[in-house]
Amino acid sequence: MPEETDRLDSWKQIAAYLQKSERTVRRWHETEGLPVHRHQHQQRGSVWTYACEIDEWLEQRRVRPARSLADEHELIEVPSRRHRWMWLGMLGAALATGGGAFWSLAVSSAPPVARLAPPVALTSLPGVEFGAAFSPDGKQVAFFWTGPSREASGIYIKTLGSESVTPLVLREPGGHFVYGPAWSPDGRTIAFLRRTETRETWLCLVASSGGPERRLIRLHDKTAVLSAENSHLAWSLDSRRILAPLQMGEHKRAIHWITVDSLATQRVTEPAASDQGPVASPNRQSLVFLRQDYSAGGGQELLLQNLKPDGSADGTARPLMRGPGFISGVAWAPGGNDLIVCKREPGTSSSLYRMPARPGGRLTPIGAEECSGVEVSRADEKGRARLVYGINREPNAQLWKADLKDLEHGSPFAPSSRSDTFPAFSPNGTTVVFRSTRSGAPAAWIANQDGMQLHRLTDLQPFGGIEWSPDGSQILFGAAGQGLAIVPLTGGTPTVIAAGGVPNWPHWSHGSGLIYYVTEYRLFQIRPDGSGRAPVGDHWSPPLSNAQVVRTSPDGKTLFLLRGERLFRRPVTAEAAEELIEPNLLSLSISVTPTTLYYLRREDKALYGLSFAGGPPRKCGILHPFGEDGGNPGSAMFTVSPDDKWIVWTVGNSPEIDLELIADFR
């Protein structure tokens, strides 16, 4: 009889024992027979199992020759009382180039380093928290939080062991966004980034105890944007200078030292592409940084730069990692010899990896599935540090369908226990494509108009919207870590027509045949064969900027643009003034049919239709149910059938990111 001390009484405890996410554990239970028992006559979802049962299941699974698709690229050390090790596969070698020679970056085939200890929740606030920075003593954390309300988003401070958070710097009216805190080594000051309403990025300072902020220097104009998940600021040991990415022409950035008192700058890296995310080693003798070069599909690269005592570059930067995937966080491990990297490989969820800080070092997974960013505190005299990372909580969003004339009586569409988002009707209205996690990792799925005959279209992870080609034979989407991709309706290998970046809300104009998409707050157009890529609106007066979502009229002659919560329209070619259609949108989602533009208004949370034939917007009604069980109607995405008869929309919560803490990390 197993001992009661071996008993695990929830999905959370089982996930912590296996060092995996709850989503993965549930999938293993459903598809791999992970032994889990359900309590009778108790609340739905209440489960339990014994650790010894899991160990036995793991031992049986270890000798099984076949692996499920979802478990590819995983290398797992299972922490059990019997200290058993289990190998579930190895990550394929990634090819990279550096200094004219080829070198490989592979998952270690030697016994892996120790995986992360079970984490504890550092934050569980509603909304999103990311970009954590430790105080010098490791007892406090500064981080970005969307806040209890839209007006209260900003940088907050939390003392470890306390349940309360204290606001330090908040957003300002007009869309200002603050993020990326970095604590000075003397503990007195926190540097951070502020993105203004005009999309300029400024380096700012504030006392760690609070008070007025000081704008130090403008880092970028509106043509450049930094990933909010990565760290972009690093202090010198004497707290007098800050490493930051400084713009040097359009689409070019270089890492600079910026002196706090004099604002003098000292360039460290060459402005060959777009450098960002500098992370200095504990002794400040070297730094690693990310280089983005999407001009020729180069993608993302992690480089190592040695530093002289004065902080200048010592030799040229050396590549550590290059290839597919997306890096959302890098930190130095205690001792300064290894790096901790949060990376998403194509077709898989993001995880934390450990690798030596040298070219050719091997990448070893250490846990933290669905991570977002990473930070390591200063180590104590025994070499112990604290590690914090964000954990993505996939929204539990479901699809519903209703008659456009009877919105109060909707019903589930292609229901599942996973997250379904970004629905889009086909041009003939017979099928719907959408993003779903029902097979594990996000993928594009297709269903008939009645929600039946489902099948998965592609394993590439759609991100930021899905669209149909005008003839309904192809699907267009932004693929996480890949770029803008097209896949035939019959399936097959997607074709990437615009590599790299994070293309959001792609749109295939039925009138002109051009493809529009938004990346780094700029609107681009491109032909379906990948030729003719060009920015849209840069020559207009004033220039087009800050677009988030774009759609076109059926004839392709009018652009509909979303900026923040406002919806505009303007001619595609003429330098005419924009016309404000709606000043207060509820959701970033809009849908266009041959006759009507549909959108959600925040004032009454209702769906409206604006006819292309003219006249005022027409109220269609309120979608029901709308975010039951605490769901957020502002996250709703919807699509209307071409005949203006049906609507399919999301019901559920917004995605969340919480911070998790490893209290003893070495």
Helix/sheet category? mainly beta
**Percent of residues in beta strands:** 35-45%
How would you name the CATH homologous superfamily of the largest domain? TolB, C-terminal domain
- Separation of termini? 37 Å
Unreliable stretches: 1-5, 39-45, 62-112, 627-631
Itemize the secondary structure elements and their pairings.
Blueprint: E1 7-8, H1 11-18, H2 22-31, E2 37-38, E3 47-50, H3 51-62, E4 94-98, E5 101-105, E6 120-121, E7 129-134, E8 140-145, E9 154-159, E10 166-170, E11 177-183, E12 189-195, E13 201-207, E14 214-220, E15 234-235, E16 241-247, E17 253-259, E18 265-267, E19 274-280, E20 286-293, E21 299-306, E22 318-322, E23 326-332, E24 338-344, E25 350-356, E26 364-367, E27 371-376, E28 385-393, E29 398-403, E30 406-412, E31 420-425, E32 431-436, E33 443-448, E34 455-458, E35 462-468, E36 474-479, E37 483-488, E38 495-499, E39 504-508, E40 515-519, E41 522-526, E42 534-535, E43 549-552, E44 558-563, E45 566-571, E46 579-582, E47 591-592, E48 596-601, E49 606-611, E50 618-621, E51 638-640, E52 646-651, E53 656-665
Antiparallel strand pairs: 1-3, 2-3, 4-5, 6-53, 7-8, 8-9, 9-10, 11-12, 12-13, 13-14, 15-16, 16-17, 17-18, 19-20, 20-21, 21-22, 23-24, 24-25, 25-26, 27-28, 28-53, 29-30, 29-52, 31-32, 32-33, 33-34, 35-36, 36-37, 37-38, 39-40, 40-41, 41-42, 43-44, 44-45, 45-46, 47-48, 48-49, 49-50, 51-52
